[in-house]
Design goal:
With about 60 residues, this protein is an alpha+beta fold. It contains two helices and two strands. It has helices at about 25-35, 35-40; strands spanning about 15-20, 50-60. Strands 1-2 form a two-stranded parallel sheet. The longest helix has 11 residues, at about 25-35.
Amino acid sequence: MTGSAIPDEASPRHVSLVALPDAVVSTLAGLFDVMNGVALMGLVAPNAPAPFHIEIVGRPWER
């Protein structure tokens, strides 16, 4: 095995917020905004990777 099991510190962390059926969308949006705040406020140096790659995930809606 040639690769390291430890992730590269220069790459952003991947964070998935799991949307459950009884979750309130404002809570998910608030968590998303707080974790993405550094990038939204422009506090990241130019050409520097954001500390997090954030996505909201969930199960497809079924009828």
